Amino acid sequence: MEVEGDSVHETLYIKNLNDHVSKKDLTESLYHLFSSHGRVISVVCKRGPMRGQAFVVFSKPEEAAGAMQRFQGMNVFGKDMVIEFARNRSASAAAHCGEFATAMLTKTAKDKL
């Protein structure tokens, strides 16, 4: 399944967020908003040079795709969100599917050799 050339997976990249809202308030608001469309594994709001951006990770790609379609352009704290699939699958999404743990175990095993 492809959407506008982006690979569909569990992680959404959100930009154009209000960078004057506290990280805590933004994280909680995004969690509650996106949880209404599926099981959210994590929300990471960026500060510093990447302020106004966030990543929301769902348990299933279908939930992420539906949330992106539903919330695209929605006004949150005075700014219209721009949502797309993240370029890469997040570590928390990989861990949820058991992939990250395997990769870390392999790395740890190699370090012991």
Order of helices and strands: EEEHEEHEEEHH
Strand portion, in percent?
25-35%
**How far apart, in Å, are the first and last alpha carbons?**
41 Å
The CATH superfamily bears the name: RRM (RNA recognition motif) domain
* CATH topology (level 3) name: Alpha-Beta Plaits
Q: What average pLDDT do the residues reach?
A: 80
Question: What would CATH call the architecture?
Answer: 2-Layer Sandwich
Number of individual domains: 1
Q: How is the main sheet built?
A: 4 strands, antiparallel
Shape: globular
Helix content: 25-40%
* Total count of helical runs of at least 4 residues: 4
Structure description:
By secondary structure, the protein is an alpha+beta fold. It has one domain (2-112): RRM (RNA recognition motif) domain (Alpha-Beta Plaits). 39% of the residues lie in helices and 27% in strands. It has helices at 23-35, 61-71, 91-96, 99-112; strands at residues 2-3, 6-7, 11-15, 40-46, 53-58, 75-76, 79-80, 82-85. The strands form three sheets. It has a four-stranded antiparallel beta sheet with strand order 4-5-3-8. A two-stranded antiparallel ribbon has the order 1-2. The longest helix is centred in the C-terminal third of the chain and has 14 residues, at 99-112.
